[in-house]
Give the backbone structure.
Amino acid sequence: MPKSVRWFPAPQTGPVLPFTEALSLGSIMTSPKNRARITDSYREWLSKLPEEDLRALLARRSDVVAPTPENFDTLATRLTLPMYVVDALSASNAEQLAALEDIAQRGGEVGMVEDTNPIVTQQLKELGLVFGNAPQVRIVTAVMGSLPTGWSLLNQESFEAEDIEALSKDERRVLDALATGDGVGYTTDTEPDINSDDPAKRLLAKGFLERINAHSMRLPRALARALAGDATPPIPTTPSGRAGTPESDPKADEAGAAAGLEVVRGMEQLIEVLGAHPVSLLKDSSVGVRSLTQLAKELDLDKEDVAQLIGLGYHARLLYRGEPDGLEGHFLAPTTGSQDWLEADLGEKWRILLEAWRDSPWASWEGTRALEEDTHVRRLRHFRKFVLGVYAHSAVALTEEEFWEDLRFRSPLFASHTRNRTIEKLRAEAEWIGAVALGKATQVLLDASTAAHLVPDTVSEFIIQQDLTVLVPGPLEPATHRTLASLADLESPGLASVYRISESTIRRGMDHGLTAEEMTAFLKKHSPTGVPQALQFAIGDVAKRHGTLRSGPALSYLRSEDPALLELAVASVPGLRLLAPTVAVSQLRVGELLEKLRNKGLSPSPEDESGASLTAAPEPYLLPTPRKKERAHEPFSVDQAVQTLKKSAQSPASKNKEEPDPLTLARAAARFHADIVISYADKSGSIRTVTVKPLSVEGGYIDALGAEGKPVRFPVHRISTVRFASDE
């Protein structure tokens, strides 16, 4: 038996107990007489809250403030809706959830119990999950039922890898079968038996399965995660002491800025490449593996990074899917808005990407293709908030182990129900874009607008060395960067970067419309050490040959004053034929002809119908920028809500005692092993009343132990009333 898994033998007349010791009903519940004296319902408690406490509750539960609740009845209803309760539970830390569990174990779901931990209880009151006045407290209806099945912090289970490996083959087959399904199995008998031939009975006895009722069992959540390779250490129920307000750390900010600017540079290059050659999309509108591989090669990045950039660019509306002018088909191409982004300051570029990344739904690591449907995860932005919250509320730098420990404490429900891989990827993303660095939150994590202050000042000068490399000591001004990038290749990226000028890059600069004189003047202006003579010679040599061949639309023609050069071109490109010693024509379009000639080492330049030279650099393919989809949010004001509620409290209010619904009462009774009285309609329609001990409430049935410990099942739709046997 695993040392970390405790099994408690089933009593002769009852199920396996979920807690270390059975608590007597008298010790955990108020008596019927005391319950009768409880007149304050949840609504009444809310109405009597001091204004300061009401304001704190509404601030923590702002999801219920819009539209402004008309009265406390409306507020109480909203606060107890399961969808809102789940969000409040997700925002609760392990200490708070453990306190809730303790209150539930002592009967706090159905009546007032002693408040044994007033500090944590006050936090739960601010979340609207419990109510009551000292020294008593009660859990709000629907809270415990909104927790995952089998959830417990006071009785945590863990399973060691060696214990799982020690299981027999037939036992392991049972576990694997349950793990691939919903985790629930059914059999004729679920009494644990270590010596049974039935592997399920042995697993029940060893603590590897949980007994639901006489005919069903469940795979423990911790074991299901362990089988999937996501073993989760125990969740700490006390804080680590590392929480606090992050202090500015110049080293972390500098490292974060360097990482963020690498993302900016990658996005710039991606936009440039896709503008020149939009990527054809697959039928499902995703970017295929082959296209990703080609983009990764062109950008000198990993495919994973390219997919990440595509998802980020798409959400930032810098990239979009559609049919650009001049192309037929479905492509991924830059948007018109991407050109404005390219013109923005470096800090502004980073800020835009940061804000888009926070809300991005694209989990690029989940698939092999970019933008495929399976990688679109709507709740990813919520997941990201949980991960970032650890760093945003840590006063010290965190190691990987400390991060996981604090995450499990701050957000136990998220940490225990989300794959470790997803959390690790989200954390890596935060480092990739510069929101986290050196284990700490950078300034941009707390306020994206600070990006402008973290990026280094731009420079306008660089140093040209004799080997034709260009040393840039910092981020270049946008205009200077565009010109230098047109006539030099980036060799070493970073805040301090290195470019290289070659014959091909000089020719590219001339294709972009630069003359030899303009190119030389630009280099002299921005290089305080001057332009090496070797570079001046190279520029002059390329200029002599550039444009000696002239091409224009016909479909296309090619002309040159040098007949020998023209003959060489005709011999190099199939389909190009001479009309005269100085003129040739082709059925290729001008752009295609120019590209083929350049691939053969020639230097043609385009011209218009009048013979005037044109810039060879084509205009980028662009798509219209899609409209931003604004999430509809009702405006809310805590102050207005408080005023409205206080005014409504002056009107007469009902004094009815709040009673839990039958299912809530049955679940509560099952948790602390209390007998209940069920009134139900039998098959003939007659009302019958029986006293039973409930085991579980699942799947539309209440499973219980009846007379002499025999299992019985009641369809929920046939039940009319449920009450505690102690009330008789």
Observations:
- The longest strand covers residues 687-698.
- The domain at 662-727 is CATH 2.30.30.520 (SH3 type barrels.).
- Residues 1-40 have pLDDT under 50 and may be disordered.
- The CA atoms of residues 118 and 134 lie 8 Å apart.
